[in-house]
Amino acid sequence: MVIDERSSFIMSSQTILFIELVSVFIGISLFLWLLVQVLLQRKLLGKYLAKHKEFNKDDNVFDKVERFLPSVASNDADSIERKFYSAGLYESKYAHLYMPVKYLSAAVGSGIIYLLLGKDSSMTTQVALMCIWLVVCISIPDAILSSRKKALEEKLSGQLPYLLDLLAMCVHTGMTIESSLSYLAKEMQGFDKDLAHMIARTNDRANIVGLEPALDELYVRVPTNEMRSFVMTLKQSLHYGSSIYEILNTLAADIRSVRLLSLEEKVGKLAAKMSVPLILFIMIPVVILIAAPGVMRMMTGVY
């Protein structure tokens, strides 16, 4: 009877602690949601007041919080759609479900951990596993999107010299830059969908706002050194009316040379990086194998 009472008391205390943890999690989530809503309202109000030149530039508490608020707590639909778009996920109609699904997965996973380990492990272990699962649910999706964004930027930068060659060929035949971009956007659908989408997006924006703002937006989406050179070259050609054919060919050759130099630099660093596993897994075991017999003889008193 005493054992049953103690076990029931332990179970009741664990249940109460779990409910408290869930309540704290829900409270923190609601606080962050309200904070983000307030910041979004202030941002919209700031844009409106800036148009009327009545916006005060002095920082206050909300400005500082907005500056240091991590992206994992942001539920702004526009920023989430930009994350998906930058990661190569162009159809982002379900982007508004990203944050709710992430926090719902954290809550459901914590409940499953409690149900599976409620009787067989201590409360400290459960809390530790719940915290680990919470960090995984919140940070891993953003890390995956960031890695996809970097991979896409690297891919587009690597394909840029081929685009410059094709663009130079189109310009050399007498086509304008706008018509060349429109033609390449259609023809490259079967080769590289990401590059074709980038060209089509730039061409569509050029038809609406002009070529120079469209090029600036292109560099904002793909902020690499190669893309900056491409954008600056086209803008210089538009400003000064210089021949674009030779400039595009020269730029393509320069980008290839720079990427080749960066590859040679990585190959040069490879020897220094390979020395670390060589020391850890080969030299240290060899030293142990050589010194072990003598040490064992000294320990046993045999010389």
Helix-strand layout with pairing:
Layout: H1 2-51, H2 61-68, H3 77-86, H4 98-117, H5 123-172, H6 177-187, H7 193-209, H8 211-221, H9 225-240, H10 244-300
Write down the secondary-structure element order: HHHHHHHHHH
What is the residue-averaged pLDDT? 77
Estimate the global geometry from the Cα principal axes.
flat
Distance between the termini: 66 Å
- Beta-strand segment tally: 0
What low-confidence regions span 5 or more consecutive residues with pLDDT below 50? 1-7, 51-58, 64-73
Keywords: Cell membrane, Membrane, Transmembrane, Transmembrane helix
Subcellular location: Cell membrane
Protein name: Type II secretion system F family protein
GO cellular component, one term: plasma membrane
Could you explain the architecture of this structure?
By secondary structure, the protein is mainly alpha-helical. It has a domain at 2-148. Helix content is 83%, strand content 0%. The protein is built from ten helices and no strands. The protein has helices at 2-51, 61-68, 77-86, 98-117, 123-172, 177-187, 193-209, 211-221, 225-240, 244-300. α4 (98-117) runs antiparallel to α5, α5 (123-172) crosses α6 and α5 (123-172) packs antiparallel against α10 (244-300). The radius of gyration is 29 Å and the shape is flat. The N and C termini lie far apart (66 Å). The model is unreliable at 1-7, 51-58 and 64-73 (pLDDT under 50).
Provide a brief overview of the structure.
This protein is mainly alpha-helical and 303 residues long.
Descriptive terms for the model:
mainly alpha
